[in-house]
Amino acid sequence: MTIFRQKGRAVPPPTTVTLECRWSAVLDGHVISLRFSPDGSQLAAAIADGPLAIFSTAGDRLHELPGHTMGTTALDWRPEGRLLASAGQDSHVRLWDTAHGVQTQALRHVTSWVERVAYHPSGRYLAAAAGKELRVWDGLGNLVCAHRDHASTIADIAWKPGIEQIAAVAYGGATLWALNQPEPLRRYEWKGSSLVLAWSPDASMFATGDQDQTVHFWYAESGLDLQMWGYETKMRELAWNPSSRYLATGGGRDAVVWDTRAGKKGPEGSKPVMLGLHEGYLSALTYQHSETKDAPALLASAGQDGLVALWRPTRGQKPLARHDFNTPISQLVFSPDDRALAVGGADGTVALLTLS
Hints:
Layout: E1 5-6, E2 9-10, E3 19-26, E4 31-36, E5 42-47, E6 52-56, E7 61-65, E8 72-77, E9 83-88, E10 92-97, E11 102-108, E12 114-119, E13 125-130, E14 133-138, E15 143-147, E16 156-159, E17 165-178, E18 186-199, E19 205-210, E20 215-219, E21 225-228, E22 238-240, E23 246-249, E24 255-259, E25 273-275, E26 282-287, E27 299-303, E28 307-311, E29 321-324, E30 329-334, E31 340-345, E32 349-355
Antiparallel strand pairs: 1-2, 3-32, 4-5, 5-6, 6-7, 8-9, 9-10, 10-11, 12-13, 13-14, 14-15, 16-17, 17-18, 18-19, 19-20, 20-21, 22-23, 23-24, 24-25, 26-27, 27-28, 28-29, 30-31, 31-32
């Protein structure tokens, strides 16, 4: 974000931000995944029924791709170039050249339903979870490893920042894997079912959103875990701010922001910031990618009420801006430069909101 200066002195950023709809389009189905290309020039959208659409950030529909028969589940871009990976219910991870709108490779998994797909930040590896098995391929599509030692179906995967290790969550907790070792590096055991996993950017902690309407904070090195409860719904919405200090959580109508440095025991026993505005349950939360001391990252929230809102939780509990859609929101993601917000809807709406 811009740091505003006056006569050589840093001054606070504006207290208001506007959200303007630059363009919108409608796809033929529920938007299940939405991702910007690494350079921010393209936006990929997948609908649950299977097809994919590639838009320019000017709003032009560049390509319509078949995706996966029976349904697409997830998307991720390779960190460099224009290669897009998609996962689906046809037992494959498919790789797409978005410059030409063609499939370049189809990587077969062990079961019919591939739930998650994630590129390593280096672009050297691609991981995907299907059933109880986690598979990792190299950049040429060669299988690097397959980890099957999970007690139940893997719900989510996430690469540990700064290192070639990956965590998977399922019933029973989280498991951390290295690519070159057949046994897990560590198990973070918990008698419950986790749905999503999010690493703090500094890799010191990860959080899981759980089936029993709780959030777990896990300290990566010690294995110590803290549990927060009292949410209205099962937890699927997690977002870390760039400094790794704050975790925003959904699980209800309010965005709940925890300060991991609130006390000697981190967030335990602290009072979170409650951001109340939505009339429907939250469906997405996301922070901007970068911030400065004078301009903390903005948090965006979206809900089943069709409302998108922007917040600066460290500066107050009132929204800075809002935009209303006539459909429940299913996807929300900031552009790489943090100047735009892509929105996906349950009715197939894809829209680009610009910040000013």
